[in-house]
Write a structure and sequence with these properties.
With about 130 residues, this protein is α+β, with helices and mostly antiparallel strands. Helices cover about 45% and strands about 20% of the residues. It contains six helices and five strands; from the N terminus they run E-E-E-H-E-E-H-H-H-H-H. It has a three-stranded antiparallel beta sheet, with no helix packed on it. A two-stranded antiparallel ribbon has the order 4-5. The chain is elongated, with a radius of gyration of 22 Å. It starts with a strand and ends in an 11-residue tail after the last helix.
């Protein structure tokens, strides 16, 4: 049984892995670097989830805990952006006729809710939907 796994990957400008694939799977990664990974001393589950937190030192790849925090934050922000796209924008982008039907109080509440959605990648707090929108 082969205890090693061969990976091919590309690096970003800082030496962190930006994309990867298993050597032997369909296709190749043009201009990729290929190395053997000792599966007994490597956490593939973590690598698959956090590969952008791994840096190549010219010989092997190592997890960088500081970069892992940055990657986790970026992933969280991206999930929030997707939620905003699905939950907020379809309401905010309704037509003029819908907006004209709102009371002054509803319009104020909608503006606060929208602003909270725009700030969600900073606050990391998903705003509660106004009760009249449910």
């Amino acid at each position: 049984m082969d205890i090693n796994k061969r990976l091919q990957f590309k690096l970003d400008d800082n030496g962190f892995i930006s994309e990867f694939m298993n050597v032997g799977s369909e296709g190749i990664l043009p201009d990729g670097i290929a190395i053997e990974i000792d599966v007994d001393n490597f956490n593939f589950d973590d690598f698959l989830e956090n590969y952008r937190a791994y840096k190549f030192d010219g010989n092997k790849i190592n997890r960088n805990d500081e970069q892992a925090i940055i990657v986790k934050d970026e992933n969280e922000k991206e999930l929030l952006r997707v939620r905003r796209l699905k939950e907020c924008f379809p309401i905010i982008n309704r037509g003029d006729m819908w907006y004209k039907s709102l009371s002054d109080e509803q319009e104020k509440e909608l503006n606060v809710w929208y602003k909270a959605w725009l700030d969600v990648t900073e606050t990391k707090k998903v705003p509660n939907v106004p009760s009249w929108l449910k």
